[in-house]
Amino acid sequence: MTIMKAKHLTLDDRKAIQEGIEKRLSKTAIAKSISKDPTTVAKEIKLHRTVKQRNRFNSPVICANLKECKKPRKFCSESCIDYLEQPCTMRDRSTGACNHCEKLSRCRLDHYFYNANKAHEAYLFHLSDSRQGVNLSEAERSIIAQTIAKPLKAGQSLYQILTNHPELGVSVKSLYTYIEGGVFKEFGIDNFSLRRQVAMRERKKLKKRREPVNYEGHKFTDYLAFIKDNPFIPTTEMDTVYNQQEGPYIQTFSYQNTCFMNRFIHTEKTSESMASTLNYLQKLLGNDYFKLFSLILTDRGTEFEKVSLFEFEAETGKLRTNIFYCDPQTPSQKPHVENNHNYVRNILPNGRKLEGLTQHDLNLLFSHINSVPRKVLGGRTPYDVFSFFYGEEIIHKMGIRRIDPDEVTLQPFLLKIE
What is the pTM of this model? Predict the structure, then answer.
Protein backbone atom coordinates (compact mmCIF):
# COMPACT_ATOMS: atom_id res chain seq x y z
CA MET A 1 0.00 0.00 0.00
CA THR A 2 1.43 3.38 -1.05
CA ILE A 3 1.34 6.16 1.55
CA MET A 4 0.39 9.47 0.00
CA LYS A 5 2.63 12.39 0.84
CA ALA A 6 1.08 15.60 2.13
CA LYS A 7 0.75 18.09 -0.70
CA HIS A 8 0.89 21.23 1.42
CA LEU A 9 3.82 22.53 3.41
CA THR A 10 3.40 22.37 7.18
CA LEU A 11 4.69 24.85 9.74
CA ASP A 12 7.53 22.43 10.51
CA ASP A 13 8.40 22.36 6.80
CA ARG A 14 8.52 26.13 6.72
CA LYS A 15 10.66 26.26 9.84
CA ALA A 16 13.04 23.82 8.17
CA ILE A 17 13.13 26.09 5.10
CA GLN A 18 13.94 29.12 7.25
CA GLU A 19 16.64 27.17 9.09
CA GLY A 20 18.11 26.09 5.76
CA ILE A 21 18.18 29.68 4.50
CA GLU A 22 19.88 30.82 7.70
CA LYS A 23 22.48 28.09 7.23
CA ARG A 24 22.88 29.43 3.65
CA LEU A 25 21.91 26.09 2.08
CA SER A 26 20.76 25.90 -1.53
CA LYS A 27 17.08 25.43 -2.33
CA THR A 28 17.90 21.91 -3.58
CA ALA A 29 19.51 20.98 -0.27
CA ILE A 30 16.59 22.45 1.68
CA ALA A 31 14.10 20.53 -0.47
CA LYS A 32 15.97 17.28 0.12
CA SER A 33 15.86 17.80 3.91
CA ILE A 34 12.03 17.99 3.92
CA SER A 35 11.45 15.49 1.08
CA LYS A 36 9.95 18.07 -1.26
CA ASP A 37 10.62 19.07 -4.84
CA PRO A 38 13.11 21.96 -5.21
CA THR A 39 10.56 23.92 -7.25
CA THR A 40 8.12 23.70 -4.32
CA VAL A 41 10.69 25.23 -1.99
CA ALA A 42 11.65 27.89 -4.55
CA LYS A 43 8.01 28.91 -5.05
CA GLU A 44 7.39 28.98 -1.29
CA ILE A 45 10.34 31.29 -0.61
CA LYS A 46 9.52 33.61 -3.51
CA LEU A 47 5.83 33.77 -2.56
CA HIS A 48 6.24 34.47 1.15
CA ARG A 49 9.52 36.37 1.46
CA THR A 50 9.27 40.07 2.26
CA VAL A 51 11.36 42.82 0.76
CA LYS A 52 13.25 45.55 2.58
CA GLN A 53 14.23 48.02 -0.10
CA ARG A 54 17.65 49.58 0.07
CA ASN A 55 18.01 53.19 1.14
CA ARG A 56 17.69 55.23 -2.06
CA PHE A 57 18.07 58.63 -0.43
CA ASN A 58 21.23 60.25 -1.83
CA SER A 59 22.36 56.83 -3.07
CA PRO A 60 23.57 56.00 -6.59
CA VAL A 61 21.41 53.93 -8.91
CA ILE A 62 22.53 50.28 -8.99
CA CYS A 63 21.94 48.95 -12.50
CA ALA A 64 23.09 45.67 -14.05
CA ASN A 65 23.65 47.48 -17.37
CA LEU A 66 25.84 50.17 -15.84
CA LYS A 67 29.14 49.07 -17.42
CA GLU A 68 27.74 48.83 -20.95
CA CYS A 69 25.51 51.92 -20.70
CA LYS A 70 26.68 54.91 -22.77
CA LYS A 71 24.31 57.44 -21.20
CA PRO A 72 25.77 60.10 -18.86
CA ARG A 73 25.73 58.98 -15.23
CA LYS A 74 23.93 62.15 -14.14
CA PHE A 75 20.85 60.97 -16.07
CA CYS A 76 20.92 57.52 -14.42
CA SER A 77 17.52 56.61 -12.97
CA GLU A 78 15.49 53.51 -12.12
CA SER A 79 12.80 54.85 -14.45
CA CYS A 80 15.23 54.50 -17.38
CA ILE A 81 13.98 52.15 -20.10
CA ASP A 82 17.30 50.26 -19.95
CA TYR A 83 17.35 49.95 -16.16
CA LEU A 84 17.87 46.38 -14.93
CA GLU A 85 17.98 45.49 -11.25
CA GLN A 86 21.37 44.20 -10.16
CA PRO A 87 21.01 40.46 -9.43
CA CYS A 88 22.48 38.67 -6.42
CA THR A 89 23.66 35.09 -6.89
CA MET A 90 23.08 34.06 -3.28
CA ARG A 91 19.73 35.80 -2.96
CA ASP A 92 18.20 35.01 -6.35
CA ARG A 93 19.68 31.66 -7.33
CA SER A 94 20.89 29.81 -4.26
CA THR A 95 19.05 30.39 -0.98
CA GLY A 96 16.30 32.71 -2.22
CA ALA A 97 16.47 35.09 0.76
CA CYS A 98 18.94 37.16 2.77
CA ASN A 99 18.48 35.71 6.28
CA HIS A 100 21.84 35.56 8.09
CA CYS A 101 23.80 36.54 4.98
CA GLU A 102 27.29 37.55 6.08
CA LYS A 103 27.31 40.39 3.54
CA LEU A 104 23.96 41.84 4.68
CA SER A 105 25.28 44.86 6.60
CA ARG A 106 27.36 46.13 3.68
CA CYS A 107 25.10 44.99 0.83
CA ARG A 108 23.55 47.87 -1.16
CA LEU A 109 20.88 45.77 -2.89
CA ASP A 110 17.28 45.19 -1.84
CA HIS A 111 17.05 42.61 0.95
CA TYR A 112 14.55 39.73 1.07
CA PHE A 113 13.68 37.89 4.30
CA TYR A 114 11.78 34.66 4.90
CA ASN A 115 9.98 34.07 8.21
CA ALA A 116 8.38 30.65 8.74
CA ASN A 117 5.70 31.76 11.21
CA LYS A 118 4.63 34.73 9.11
CA ALA A 119 4.67 32.62 5.95
CA HIS A 120 2.44 30.00 7.56
CA GLU A 121 0.04 32.66 8.87
CA ALA A 122 -0.24 34.15 5.40
CA TYR A 123 -0.77 30.68 3.91
CA LEU A 124 -3.58 29.86 6.36
CA PHE A 125 -5.16 33.25 5.78
CA HIS A 126 -5.31 32.84 2.00
CA LEU A 127 -6.32 29.17 2.32
CA SER A 128 -9.31 30.12 4.47
CA ASP A 129 -10.33 32.96 2.16
CA SER A 130 -10.07 30.77 -0.94
CA ARG A 131 -12.52 28.27 0.57
CA GLN A 132 -15.20 30.84 1.25
CA GLY A 133 -16.80 30.35 -2.12
CA VAL A 134 -20.37 29.58 -3.26
CA ASN A 135 -21.57 26.18 -2.08
CA LEU A 136 -23.87 25.60 -5.06
CA SER A 137 -23.70 23.48 -8.17
CA GLU A 138 -24.58 25.07 -11.50
CA ALA A 139 -27.89 23.18 -11.57
CA GLU A 140 -28.82 24.33 -8.05
CA ARG A 141 -27.93 27.91 -8.93
CA SER A 142 -30.22 27.82 -11.96
CA ILE A 143 -33.15 26.26 -10.05
CA ILE A 144 -32.94 28.81 -7.21
CA ALA A 145 -32.73 31.73 -9.64
CA GLN A 146 -35.75 30.59 -11.66
CA THR A 147 -37.76 30.00 -8.48
CA ILE A 148 -37.10 33.35 -6.78
CA ALA A 149 -37.11 35.66 -9.83
CA LYS A 150 -40.89 36.07 -10.20
CA PRO A 151 -41.71 36.43 -6.46
CA LEU A 152 -38.97 39.05 -6.08
CA LYS A 153 -40.47 41.10 -8.90
CA ALA A 154 -43.80 40.83 -7.11
CA GLY A 155 -42.26 42.45 -4.04
CA GLN A 156 -41.99 39.37 -1.85
CA SER A 157 -39.28 39.16 0.80
CA LEU A 158 -36.71 36.37 0.79
CA TYR A 159 -38.19 35.00 4.01
CA GLN A 160 -41.61 34.82 2.37
CA ILE A 161 -40.20 33.10 -0.73
CA LEU A 162 -38.22 30.50 1.22
CA THR A 163 -41.18 29.79 3.49
CA ASN A 164 -43.19 28.94 0.38
CA HIS A 165 -40.31 27.00 -1.23
CA PRO A 166 -38.54 24.94 1.46
CA GLU A 167 -37.32 22.59 -1.28
CA LEU A 168 -34.63 25.16 -2.18
CA GLY A 169 -32.71 24.13 0.95
CA VAL A 170 -30.97 27.46 1.64
CA SER A 171 -31.28 29.90 4.52
CA VAL A 172 -32.38 33.51 4.23
CA LYS A 173 -28.91 34.65 5.27
CA SER A 174 -27.19 32.51 2.63
CA LEU A 175 -29.57 33.70 -0.06
CA TYR A 176 -28.91 37.33 0.84
CA THR A 177 -25.18 36.62 0.61
CA TYR A 178 -25.54 34.94 -2.80
CA ILE A 179 -27.60 37.80 -4.22
CA GLU A 180 -25.32 40.53 -2.85
CA GLY A 181 -22.33 38.58 -4.17
CA GLY A 182 -23.75 38.62 -7.71
CA VAL A 183 -24.32 34.84 -7.95
CA PHE A 184 -27.64 35.30 -9.78
CA LYS A 185 -26.77 38.48 -11.67
CA GLU A 186 -26.96 36.83 -15.09
CA PHE A 187 -30.57 35.91 -14.27
CA GLY A 188 -31.42 39.56 -13.66
CA ILE A 189 -31.33 39.24 -9.86
CA ASP A 190 -29.17 41.67 -7.90
CA ASN A 191 -29.32 43.94 -4.83
CA PHE A 192 -32.01 46.08 -6.44
CA SER A 193 -34.28 43.03 -6.61
CA LEU A 194 -34.45 42.79 -2.82
CA ARG A 195 -37.33 44.31 -0.95
CA ARG A 196 -36.02 46.62 1.77
CA GLN A 197 -38.54 47.22 4.54
CA VAL A 198 -38.20 50.46 6.47
CA ALA A 199 -38.30 48.64 9.79
CA MET A 200 -35.59 46.18 8.77
CA ARG A 201 -32.56 46.48 11.01
CA GLU A 202 -29.18 46.90 9.38
CA ARG A 203 -27.42 43.57 9.31
CA LYS A 204 -24.07 43.33 10.97
CA LYS A 205 -21.20 43.53 8.54
CA LEU A 206 -18.46 41.00 8.85
CA LYS A 207 -15.33 42.58 10.21
CA LYS A 208 -12.60 42.50 7.62
CA ARG A 209 -9.91 40.03 8.54
CA ARG A 210 -6.59 41.68 9.40
CA GLU A 211 -3.60 40.69 7.34
CA PRO A 212 -0.71 39.38 9.46
CA VAL A 213 1.74 42.21 10.21
CA ASN A 214 5.28 41.42 9.11
CA TYR A 215 8.01 43.59 10.61
CA GLU A 216 10.88 41.61 9.09
CA GLY A 217 13.60 44.04 8.07
CA HIS A 218 11.95 46.83 10.09
CA LYS A 219 12.64 45.71 13.67
CA PHE A 220 14.64 47.64 16.25
CA THR A 221 17.73 45.52 15.57
CA ASP A 222 17.42 46.52 11.90
CA TYR A 223 17.19 50.15 12.99
CA LEU A 224 20.42 49.86 14.98
CA ALA A 225 22.16 48.34 11.94
CA PHE A 226 20.78 51.10 9.70
CA ILE A 227 22.00 54.00 11.85
CA LYS A 228 25.38 52.31 12.14
CA ASP A 229 25.66 52.29 8.34
CA ASN A 230 24.03 55.73 7.97
CA PRO A 231 25.22 57.80 10.96
CA PHE A 232 24.46 61.15 9.31
CA ILE A 233 20.74 60.52 8.74
CA PRO A 234 18.87 61.95 11.78
CA THR A 235 16.10 59.93 13.43
CA THR A 236 12.56 61.24 13.82
CA GLU A 237 10.44 59.46 16.44
CA MET A 238 6.70 59.10 15.77
CA ASP A 239 3.87 58.37 18.21
CA THR A 240 0.19 59.00 18.99
CA VAL A 241 -1.47 60.76 21.94
CA TYR A 242 -5.18 60.58 22.76
CA ASN A 243 -7.50 60.65 25.78
CA GLN A 244 -10.66 58.96 24.51
CA GLN A 245 -10.84 55.79 22.42
CA GLU A 246 -13.11 57.55 19.94
CA GLY A 247 -10.56 60.31 19.38
CA PRO A 248 -9.41 62.80 18.36
CA TYR A 249 -5.85 61.50 17.96
CA ILE A 250 -2.66 63.56 17.95
CA GLN A 251 0.15 62.25 15.75
CA THR A 252 3.45 63.49 17.16
CA PHE A 253 6.97 63.70 15.71
CA SER A 254 10.08 64.39 17.75
CA TYR A 255 13.37 65.15 16.00
CA GLN A 256 16.07 63.50 18.10
CA ASN A 257 18.85 65.99 17.42
CA THR A 258 16.79 69.06 18.37
CA CYS A 259 14.01 67.94 20.82
CA PHE A 260 11.68 69.89 18.50
CA MET A 261 8.18 68.43 18.36
CA ASN A 262 5.60 68.44 15.58
CA ARG A 263 1.92 67.52 15.72
CA PHE A 264 -1.14 66.74 13.56
CA ILE A 265 -4.72 66.02 14.54
CA HIS A 266 -6.69 63.03 13.21
CA THR A 267 -10.24 61.77 13.55
CA GLU A 268 -9.22 58.20 12.64
CA LYS A 269 -6.55 56.02 14.21
CA THR A 270 -5.54 54.19 11.03
CA SER A 271 -2.39 53.77 8.97
CA GLU A 272 -4.10 55.49 6.06
CA SER A 273 -4.86 58.58 8.14
CA MET A 274 -1.42 58.75 9.78
CA ALA A 275 0.46 58.19 6.50
CA SER A 276 -1.53 61.02 4.90
CA THR A 277 0.46 63.39 7.15
CA LEU A 278 3.66 62.38 5.35
CA ASN A 279 1.92 62.99 2.01
CA TYR A 280 0.98 66.48 3.20
CA LEU A 281 4.45 67.25 4.59
CA GLN A 282 6.18 66.05 1.44
CA LYS A 283 4.14 68.48 -0.66
CA LEU A 284 4.56 71.27 1.89
CA LEU A 285 8.32 70.95 2.40
CA GLY A 286 9.56 69.69 -0.96
CA ASN A 287 13.18 68.53 -0.75
CA ASP A 288 13.37 69.67 2.88
CA TYR A 289 11.11 66.71 3.69
CA PHE A 290 14.06 64.31 3.31
CA LYS A 291 16.09 66.26 5.87
CA LEU A 292 13.47 65.50 8.51
CA PHE A 293 11.70 62.28 7.56
CA SER A 294 14.21 60.01 5.83
CA LEU A 295 14.36 57.87 8.97
CA ILE A 296 11.39 57.27 11.31
CA LEU A 297 11.27 55.18 14.49
CA THR A 298 7.87 54.32 15.94
CA ASP A 299 6.00 51.69 17.96
CA ARG A 300 3.88 48.77 16.78
CA GLY A 301 0.51 50.46 17.16
CA THR A 302 -2.14 49.46 14.63
CA GLU A 303 -2.12 53.00 13.26
CA PHE A 304 1.46 52.53 12.02
CA GLU A 305 1.41 48.87 10.96
CA LYS A 306 1.09 49.33 7.17
CA VAL A 307 4.75 49.82 6.42
CA SER A 308 4.47 50.57 2.70
CA LEU A 309 2.04 53.49 3.23
CA PHE A 310 4.73 55.31 5.20
CA GLU A 311 7.82 54.26 3.26
CA PHE A 312 6.69 54.84 -0.32
CA GLU A 313 5.21 57.77 -2.23
CA ALA A 314 1.59 57.03 -3.11
CA GLU A 315 1.82 58.39 -6.66
CA THR A 316 5.27 57.24 -7.82
CA GLY A 317 6.02 54.28 -5.54
CA LYS A 318 9.46 55.72 -4.79
CA LEU A 319 11.04 55.23 -1.38
CA ARG A 320 10.65 58.40 0.71
CA THR A 321 11.17 57.16 4.27
CA ASN A 322 12.91 54.32 6.08
CA ILE A 323 10.62 53.26 8.94
CA PHE A 324 11.54 50.98 11.84
CA TYR A 325 9.58 49.68 14.83
CA CYS A 326 10.49 49.37 18.50
CA ASP A 327 10.26 46.01 20.21
CA PRO A 328 6.80 45.24 21.69
CA GLN A 329 6.02 47.10 24.93
CA THR A 330 9.36 48.94 24.87
CA PRO A 331 8.63 52.70 24.73
CA SER A 332 12.09 53.37 26.18
CA GLN A 333 13.54 52.70 22.71
CA LYS A 334 12.06 56.03 21.54
CA PRO A 335 12.71 58.16 24.64
CA HIS A 336 12.67 61.59 22.99
CA VAL A 337 9.04 61.54 21.89
CA GLU A 338 7.97 59.84 25.15
CA ASN A 339 9.68 62.52 27.26
CA ASN A 340 8.18 65.29 25.13
CA HIS A 341 4.73 63.85 25.81
CA ASN A 342 5.16 64.89 29.45
CA TYR A 343 4.89 68.51 28.27
CA VAL A 344 1.76 67.64 26.28
CA ARG A 345 0.22 66.02 29.36
CA ASN A 346 0.77 69.20 31.39
CA ILE A 347 -1.73 70.91 29.10
CA LEU A 348 -3.86 67.92 28.03
CA PRO A 349 -3.93 65.69 31.14
CA ASN A 350 -5.41 62.20 30.97
CA GLY A 351 -9.18 62.33 31.27
CA ARG A 352 -9.60 65.77 29.74
CA LYS A 353 -12.17 65.69 26.95
CA LEU A 354 -10.70 66.66 23.60
CA GLU A 355 -13.74 66.69 21.29
CA GLY A 356 -13.30 70.39 20.51
CA LEU A 357 -9.56 70.19 19.87
CA THR A 358 -8.45 71.68 16.52
CA GLN A 359 -5.23 71.86 14.52
CA HIS A 360 -5.07 75.56 15.44
CA ASP A 361 -5.09 74.57 19.13
CA LEU A 362 -2.23 72.15 18.52
CA ASN A 363 -0.24 74.85 16.73
CA LEU A 364 -0.50 77.02 19.84
CA LEU A 365 0.18 74.16 22.26
CA PHE A 366 3.32 72.99 20.49
CA SER A 367 4.56 76.54 19.94
CA HIS A 368 4.68 76.84 23.74
CA ILE A 369 6.29 73.40 24.21
CA ASN A 370 8.99 74.15 21.63
CA SER A 371 9.76 77.44 23.39
CA VAL A 372 10.72 75.75 26.68
CA PRO A 373 14.53 75.80 27.36
CA ARG A 374 15.95 72.29 27.77
CA LYS A 375 18.88 71.32 29.97
CA VAL A 376 19.95 68.69 27.42
CA LEU A 377 20.25 71.51 24.85
CA GLY A 378 22.43 73.65 27.10
CA GLY A 379 19.55 75.93 28.07
CA ARG A 380 18.47 76.57 24.49
CA THR A 381 14.93 75.93 23.27
CA PRO A 382 13.99 73.28 20.68
CA TYR A 383 12.76 76.17 18.51
CA ASP A 384 16.22 77.79 18.51
CA VAL A 385 18.14 74.56 17.89
CA PHE A 386 15.81 73.42 15.11
CA SER A 387 15.97 76.79 13.35
CA PHE A 388 19.79 76.70 13.63
CA PHE A 389 19.98 73.33 11.84
CA TYR A 390 17.11 73.65 9.37
CA GLY A 391 16.10 77.30 9.17
CA GLU A 392 13.16 79.21 10.59
CA GLU A 393 11.22 79.10 7.30
CA ILE A 394 10.46 75.38 7.75
CA ILE A 395 9.12 76.06 11.26
CA HIS A 396 6.79 78.75 9.95
CA LYS A 397 5.57 76.46 7.16
CA MET A 398 4.60 73.91 9.81
CA GLY A 399 2.58 76.48 11.75
CA ILE A 400 4.84 76.83 14.80
CA ARG A 401 5.90 80.23 16.20
CA ARG A 402 8.31 81.41 18.87
CA ILE A 403 6.73 82.28 22.24
CA ASP A 404 8.30 84.93 24.47
CA PRO A 405 10.00 83.20 27.45
CA ASP A 406 7.83 85.03 29.99
CA GLU A 407 4.67 84.12 28.08
CA VAL A 408 5.27 80.35 27.86
CA THR A 409 2.37 78.50 29.49
CA LEU A 410 2.25 74.79 30.33
CA GLN A 411 -1.12 74.68 32.08
CA PRO A 412 -4.49 73.28 30.92
CA PHE A 413 -6.00 76.78 30.78
CA LEU A 414 -3.78 77.52 27.75
CA LEU A 415 -6.47 75.86 25.60
CA LYS A 416 -10.19 76.49 26.01
CA ILE A 417 -11.62 73.46 24.25
CA GLU A 418 -14.53 72.39 26.48
Answer: 0.53
Question: Which residue type, as a one-letter code, is found at position 14?
Answer: R
**∠ CA(116), CA(120), CA(121), 5° rounding?**
120
Question: How many Cβ atoms are within 10 Å of 109's Cβ, its own excluded?
Answer: 17
What superfamily does domain 220-414 belong to in CATH? Answer: Ribonuclease H-like superfamily/Ribonuclease H (3.30.420.10)
Residues of the chain with pLDDT under 50: 1-5, 129-131, 197-202
Contact, 226 vs 296, CB < 8 A?
no
Where do the structural domains in the chain lie, given as residue ranges? 11-130, 138-193, 220-414
| Angle at the Cα of 300 from the Cα atoms of 299 and 306, rounded to 5 degrees | 115
Angle between helices 138-153 and 172-180 (to 10 degrees): 90
Residues 50-80: tens digit of each pLDDT: 878 776 655 676 787 777 777 666 556 555 6
Residue 321 burial class via C-beta count within 10 angstroms: exposed 0-12, middle 13-18, buried 19 and up? buried
First to last CA, the chain: 78
